[in-house]
Amino acid sequence: MSCVPTRTDDASHRPDKPPKNHPTRLARLSPASRFQRPHGPPSGDDSPFRIRGADLSASIAVFLIALPLSLGIALATGAPLQAGLVAAAVGGIVAGRLGGSPLQVSGPAAGLTVVTAELIQRYGWRTTCAITVLAGLCQLVLAALRVARSALAVSPAIVHGMLAGIGATIALAQLHIVLGGTPQSSAVSNVQGLPAQLRDLHPAALSVSVLTVAVLLIWPRVPGRAGSIVRKVPAALVAVAAATALATLANLHQPLVDLPSWRSHALPELPEGPVLGLLAAVLTITLVGSVESLLSAVAIDKLAAARKKPAVRVPRTDLDRELAGQGAANVVSGALGGLPITGVAVRSSANVAAGAVSRNSAMLHGLWIVVAALLLVPVLDLIPLAALAALVMVVGVQMVNITHLRSVKKNREMLVYAATLSAVVLTGVLEGVVIGVAVAVAVALHRLTRTRITVEEHDGVHRVRARGQLTFLAVPRLSRILSHVPPGADCVVELDGSFMDHAAYEALHDWQTSHTAQGGNVEVTGRAGGRISEPADETHGCCRPWTPWRNHHCDDRPRETDGHHLASGLSSFQRNTAPLVRDELARLAREGQRPSQLFITCADSRLVTSMITASGPGDLFTVRNVGNLVPRPGEESADDSVAAAIEYAVDILGVDSITVCGHSGCGAMQALLNSPPDVSPTPLARWLRHGRPSLRRMENRDRAWARISGRLPTDAVEQLCLTNVVQQLEHLRAHESVARRLAAGSLQLQGMYFHVGEAQAYLLTSTAEDEIEEVFDRVAPTPSPLEKSRV
């Protein structure tokens, strides 16, 4: 059974065939005698001398997107069109080889279009190339200082506002070319000149542009089976090809691409101009390019992790190495007369979607750009400039992302977004980002200082409400309001905020202790009314569940035998939890149970199924027994209760999946290892007979041991716990109802292992019966809503 691990910690070993000796002697053997080198799965970071078919096909798909976009971005900046091809080639080859993100594709990006256009207009093209080289050197210095992760601290509202402002500026400039005119020097001038441009339309340019935009919008939406086939060809390539065919066949007279001879290609010169202006230009290219590249790399990591096929492990991005790769690429691109380079989300996403598995795809795409620049010049010279302008205009409009806008609005950062967008359009990229940061800081300070604290009395209970963040600035108001609560009264303190600093905590805690000592009762709750802390009481007999349970240290306290602990827990449920779940449980009572999966796990008290699966009432149909065992049907002493639960879940409830979950330190597995085969027939011994096939499976010299993702099992007990999960899955397949649903393809089986001490879950990623190796794969945390909004 072969599964794909996600970690490579100590991946240089693999469990070998276990010896014939009794399993209890296994734990005393040295690691060298028990394990051998593993047969790991293919890695995404492969040798540069071996090219997989997936990388080859992905590189062609990315090349077909990058070629027209590179020309269009060069046109939008006012640089020589060849500069876009140089940047695309260098971005693919240099950044692809040296960068830290295996699947990110770098090249000229729309995010730097406005900055580059301004630099070309102010300093000329050759000086702009020198500025690109200096920006690349700055990126190399920042990578050496290992500050790449600091770029992720920028507020998403600022990043999205910056991109939206750049997109709006690009769209306004390219709209003039689409209409057959010439763009002005700024976004404001482009808006002011738009009425005159509308009065002086050029039909040839307009027809080519309309066709380009129409194809770009319609191509991804072609329905049916034909649509799934044609969408394999990039929309950008189809749009530009259609516009070129129209211009050629209709003999439309309009400006075309004109790639001059490479012999006359312009190279950089020593920068000339005010020193402060040049430093600001270098800083702008460095910051904007670095932030865009790093955020794009993080987004591509998430896309690659969510991809189901191909099942190849791709290493996560090394952000400092990625920044160094971008710096090296900018140095080379500027020295060769190319545009500034960043990681490009559009091409990188296409690379992931096309199935790339290593950095060879990006490098090959750069090689195809070189081939096209040298051999396809006559074909490229047929492309109308209006088609490229329309392509870049659509890209600019798409940079004003509605999804990002909704995320910003949801997080109440519209002011920061709007300020950054407006400032970028009106003043420039660097100035706009600085203004956005200033507004974000001002908003954060305003939220920290805006705290509303009120108190009201109802039925003898004083309710203190604190709306906003509790910082040291709010301590005087908090203390004054709390002083209005009479000594000995019942009080509820409701905290409606996400932050409380140390000063506010001390003030609240000291008052709470004092008020309780005077005979009062204090309950501190959150926004939903759930209790979040208890009065400090050194004589408290036992820890409360959940939130205070985080610091559970009651092992040294005397056990309560009078049922008081159970009654206390029930009382807590009725008071705190029942009001929150009553409506949902009432709905389930009306509709009946419809769980999505059967969960078979151990009866161990440390295994809290609802907690580790983040499930609630009605989600899981759970069967718990000693050792998470599934007896084979028809065996002597078979347990009908487990078989009955399986039949009920599969045939009546119609669950979609069955999970067998083992755990570390399982007492049943320890008993199996330590008890002789002829043990007295006690009820526990009779039950553990169903685990002996797992023990035999582990002792089988013809099988490799089950492995836990990227590391060796710590001892024989853990090895048996892992093997037992796989063996019980085989027992499941022998049940008639399960076999029938598996044959119909309507049921899935999955194995799971929970390490109690690490609070880490592992999933068996494959359950094929004809394989010989089992690997449990670590479950990584999923992105938070904020991280998803950045993607």
From TrEMBL:
Residue spans of biased composition, Basic and acidic residues class: 7-19
Superkingdom to which the source organism belongs? Bacteria
Family assignment from sequence similarity:
Belongs to the beta-class carbonic anhydrase family.
Instruction: Name its species.
Output: Streptomyces xantholiticus
- Protein known as: SulP family inorganic anion transporter
> Where is it located?
Membrane
Query: What is the annotated signal peptide range for this record?
Result: none
The membrane-topology field of this record reads: Multi-pass membrane protein
Q: Does the keyword Iron apply?
A: no
The record's section on InterPro entries has: Carbonic_anhydrase, Carbonic_anhydrase_sf, SLC26A/SulP_dom, SLC26A/SulP_fam
Domain SLC26A/SulP transporter, by residue range, is 54-419
Q: Which residues form a coiled coil?
A: none
Q: Lineage, please?
A: Bacteria, Bacillati, Actinomycetota, Actinomycetes, Kitasatosporales
Going by the UniProt record, its keywords in alphabetical order are:
Membrane, Transmembrane, Transmembrane helix
Question: Looking at the record, which segments are called Disordered?
Answer: 1-49
